From TrEMBL:
Gene3D superfamilies per UniProt: C2 domain, EF-hand, Phosphatidylinositol (PI) phosphodiesterase, Pleckstrin-homology domain (PH domain)/Phosphotyrosine-binding domain (PTB)
Domain of life: Eukaryota
GO-annotated cellular components: endoplasmic reticulum; nucleus; plasma membrane
Obligatory cofactor(s): Ca(2+)
One term of GO molecular function: phosphatidylinositol-4,5-bisphosphate phospholipase C activity
Species annotation: Dicentrarchus labrax (European seabass)
Domain EF-hand: 135-170, 171-206
Catalytic activity of the protein: a 1,2-diacyl-sn-glycero-3-phospho-(1D-myo-inositol) + H2O = 1D-myo-inositol 1-phosphate + a 1,2-diacyl-sn-glycerol + H(+); a 1,2-diacyl-sn-glycero-3-phospho-(1D-myo-inositol-4,5-bisphosphate) + H2O = 1D-myo-inositol 1,4,5-trisphosphate + a 1,2-diacyl-sn-glycerol + H(+)
Domain named PH: residues: 17-125
Keyword DNA repair appears in the UniProt entry: no
Assigned EC number: 3.1.4.11
Domain PI-PLC Y-box: 491-531, 532-568
Official protein name in the record: Phosphoinositide phospholipase C
Length: 717
């Protein structure tokens, strides 16, 4: 099977040629687990194959699409632990998407390491620049390789039947044989290259999209530019320079040069457009930074992480610097550091009163310093849970100052007593400390704190206790402990705009709170006070993380999203319980026609199992807007299920509404299995005919799985 169109770009690249030949490298898991493996780029230039040098050992593979980043040198905990044994220029780390563990490697030489580092980056760049046609060719090639069990470059009918099961298709043998025979133009009894492409196209024929195409095509064969303009205006509800946009779409997505010369779009081009980012449900104009970033910090929702150091379990999980790196690289702008006294005068980070492992505070600060601004230049807030003695607090302050240097905000921006918070724009490239502080910000300017080396404050500390007798049930009780804690002036001085304070009530805060004071809640407390959830464990997949990712996927994924105007006006209090009472109240009706699904992933590992998919649409927002509706389930078809089911929602506060699409495998005897999901703000939705590109449980894409829907948002009369 021919590989992708990137093949031409690969031929002249020495690094990729070297990867195709293969290299022996050490795979490192710990100081004591260091084993040689033979690594090789497959001919498809998309798959890395590796195996032990010992005969009889199975091989492993991973796709280049799974790799999120390549880190050079000692840039992981594992490689740092063996830094004395292997030089940095031979070491590199492959970071995978989602929750898959990193792959730490040591090459035989610095040149070989560079060859793989540059080669992998080139492959990732090629992928990112791939056109829609090349992506389609790639998927077809992937399926061919999966099905061609005997690797003879052709597929017999038995291999085709196995492929259909892999693809989630429940097709009777007669129909499958008919398609196979139609595609077998050479009448050889097998499918090769173009014959398999033809078979795939017949299999993936989109009657649902063809119906829309023919509705707007005057001759049923193509969309003239005028036809396409009508479609964009009437269905996609586009208003800005439609004539120019139609021209651009033909130029970008039409594969036929003959059609381009006629300023027309064939069905293939139409399908390419609807499957692209422009045809997706998420408005591309909201993908980059489009909001005003010069308002005070408190005017933004800030992407925040709780117990950032934990990679998994809250009670006995592994604490890791990697938790911080991953959260920051996903756009998180507020990370939590739970600090306790450690051995040898060095503060440590872990989940206190639990059995989670421990990491050094200075290693966390190093990681934050290195990764804070890799994906967003806007400020990072280090939220310190301080349980340390005064002596180790001084060590903390030393590490913060020494490691972060000028990145650490040590004083107000203009050196004067402020009257309000600065903006994300003002604080670009700065790291702010959120922690307890001796006195207030005002005292820092009138010299009242100068002489005191330590201060005392009342600490209301939430302590997690584990019930020793019920460890297997992971039973946890929480109790509130009030105590006096001493605070070192050195650490206190590192706190400027984010002083941690205890929260009493909203009424108390309205009267007494200062603009630089911040209160944190557990989720249960927040629900009690606000009836909505707060910060998250970035390492925990699920509905909460989906909503967080969905909210912050807009505005350049920079970790800051501007609140709606009614939440920024201090004199006007927004009550989520009665949204109809606010100024500018305009409810909307969201109508979603769930038309079809495409190539949904298998969730059951049993070979003969085929998905019975249903789609649930959830609205998350103010209490009045919380709602869920489902389509029917389609029996035994995860490949191209068709619903044409219409769901309607009335939304009273559209500015705060999140829409979550969930696909599940229906099971009448037990809980439905999760298949995929996609979540976004209602304000980021495009109307008309749109594809929803589904994400896995851990938030990574699962191409080519998608839903095809029609969206309308209208004012409620």
């Amino acid at each position: 099977m021919a590989s992708t169109g990137s093949g031409l770009r690969i031929r002249g690249d020495d690094n990729l040629q070297s990867m195709l030949v293969g290299t022996v490298m050490r795979k490192i898991k710990s100081r004591t687990w260091k084993k040689q493996r033979y690594f090789k780029l497959q001919d498809d230039c998309m798959t890395i194959w590796y195996k032990s040098k010992k005969a009889g050992k199975p091989h492993s593979t991973f796709s280049v699409t799974d790799v999120e980043a390549i880190r050079e040198g000692h840039q992981s905990e594992v490689l740092l632990s063996i830094a004395d044994e292997f030089p940095a220029d031979r070491c590199f780390t492959l970071v995978f998407r989602g929750r898959r563990a990193n792959l730490d490697l040591v090459a035989e030489s610095a040149d070989e390491a560079q060859s793989w580092i540059r080669g992998m980056r080139k492959l990732i760049e090629n992928l990112e620049n791939m056109g829609e046609r090349e992506k389609l060719d790639q998927w077809i090639g992937d399926w061919f390789r999966k099905a061609d069990k005997n690797n003879d470059g052709r597929m017999n009918f038995k291999e085709v039947q196995d492929l259909l099961k892999m693809m989630n298709v429940d097709m009777n043998e007669h129909h499958a044989l008919r398609l196979f025979t139609m595609a077998d133009k050479s009448q050889s009894g097998t499918l090769e290259d173009d014959e398999f492409v033809l078979f795939y196209k017949m299999l993936t024929q989109r009657d649902d999209v063809l119906r829309v195409f023919q509705e707007y095509s005057v001759d049923g064969q193509k969309l003239s530019q005028s036809d396409l303009e009508d479609f964009l205006r009437e269905e996609q509800l586009e208003g800005d320079d439609i004539q120019q946009h139609a021209k651009e779409l033909i130029e970008r997505y039409e594969p036929s040069d003959a059609a381009k010369l006629l300023n027309a779009m064939t069905f293939d081009g139409f399908l390419m457009y609807l499957g692209s980012a422009e045809g997706s449900i998420f408005n591309p104009q909201r993908r980059g930074i489009f909001q005003d970033m010069s308002q005070p910090l408190c005017h933004y929702f800030i992407s925040s992480s709780h117990n950032t150091y934990l990679m998994e379990d809250q009670l006995r999980g592994h604490s890791s610097v990697e938790g911080y790196i991953r959260a920051l690289c996903r756009g998180c702008r507020c990370v939590e550091v739970d600090c306790w006294d450690g051995a040898n005068g060095e503060p440590i980070v872990y989940h206190g009163h639990t059995f989670t492992s421990k990491i050094l505070f200075k290693d966390v600060v190093n990681a934050v310093g290195n990764y804070a601004f890799k994906v967003s230049e806007y400020p990072v807030i280090l939220s310190i849970e301080n349980h340390c003695s005064v002596e180790q607090q001084r060590v903390m302050a030393q590490h913060l100052n020494h490691i972060l240097g000028d990145k650490l905000l040590k004083s107000t921006l203009d050196g004067k007593a402020p009257i309000g918070l600065p903006s994300p724009e003002d604080l670009k490239g700065k790291i702010l400390l959120k922690a307890k502080k001796i006195g207030g910000l005002e005292e820092s300017f009138n010299g009242m704190v100068e002489d005191s080396l330590t201060g005392e404050f009342s600490d209301e500390d939430e302590v997690t206790e584990i019930d020793e007798d019920n460890l297997h049930r992971e039973s946890v009780r929480r109790r509130v402990r009030r105590s006096k804690q001493r605070l070192s002036k050195e650490l206190s001085d590192c706190v400027v705009y984010c002083k941690s304070v205890h929260f009493s009530s909203f009424k108390h805060s309205r009267i007494h709170s200062k603009f630089y004071e911040v209160a944190s809640f557990t989720e249960s407390k927040a629900r009690k006070h606000l009836r909505e959830a707060v910060a998250l464990n970035y390492q925990t997949a699920g509905e909460g993380m989906d909503l967080n990712d969905g909210l912050f996927s807009q505005n350049g994924n920079c970790g800051y999203v501007l609140k709606p105007s009614f939440m920024k006006e201090a004199e006007k209090r927004f009550d989520p319980e009665t949204p109809q009472k606010r100024d500018g109240y305009q409810p909307v009706v969201l109508t979603i026609q769930v038309i079809s699904g495409q190539q949904l992933p298998k969730v059951n590992i049993k070979e003969d199992s085929i998905v019975d998919p249903l789609v649930r649409v959830e609205i998350h927002g103010v209490p009045m807007d919380q709602a869920k509706q489902e389509t029917r389930y389609i029996e035994n078809n995860g490949f191209n299920p068709v619903w044409y089911d219409t769901l309607r929602f009335t939304i009273h506060t559209p500015e705060l509404a999140m829409v979550r699409f969930v696909v599940e495998d229906y099971d009448k005897t037990s809980k439905n299995d999760f298949v995929g999901q996609y979540t976004l703000s209602l304000s980021c939705m495009q109307q008309g005919y749109r594809h929803i590109h589904l994400l896995s449980k851990d938030g990574t894409s699962i191409p080519p799985s998608s839903l095809f829907v029609h969206i309308r948002i209208t004012d409620l009369e």
